[in-house]
Amino acid sequence: MSISMYSASIPVFKQMLASLDHVLAKAEAHAAARNIAPEALLQARLFPDMFPLLRQVQVAADFARGVSARLAGVAVPAYGEGEKTFADLQTMIGNTLAFLDGLNAAQCDGSEAREIVLRPGTPKEKKLSGQAYLLHYGLPQFFFHVTTAYAILRHNGVEIGKKDYMGAY
Description:
Elements: H1 5-33, H2 38-42, H3 53-72, H4 86-101, H5 105-108, E1 115-118, E2 126-129, H6 130-155, H7 162-166
Antiparallel strand pairs: 1-2
Helix pairs in contact: 1-3, 1-4, 1-6, 3-4, 3-6
């Protein structure tokens, strides 16, 4: 028995983005309750050469939109990267969830063999099948950034746990 490309992607992105939205709300409340400037959390990093929380969230949403759009054969929506506040990030996540809600199984299923070209026309160009793109590139990248965002907040004292990370499933 096989699993559909839609089932392996869109619901997973939606679950984790909803949990990320919830975690960001907890982080904002944590900052307010402890008189911490929100920017201190938004710019927090696990290590100096890593992206800060704000960018981790942006990149996670970018992967959710980009992977889903490419599998569905639709244009990747261009928004994001102007966020500066928790509210901005939550709006971006809401927009991403709305985009994902607009995709259906018929658009994604059958994309296993579709050729996906990463960084077209550059020396880093790479061609993958839709299935390899989702399972070996898109999902790992997405989870890396969601997990790193969670770890940044947990490291900075936000009271979140595994249930917060997992969200509703």
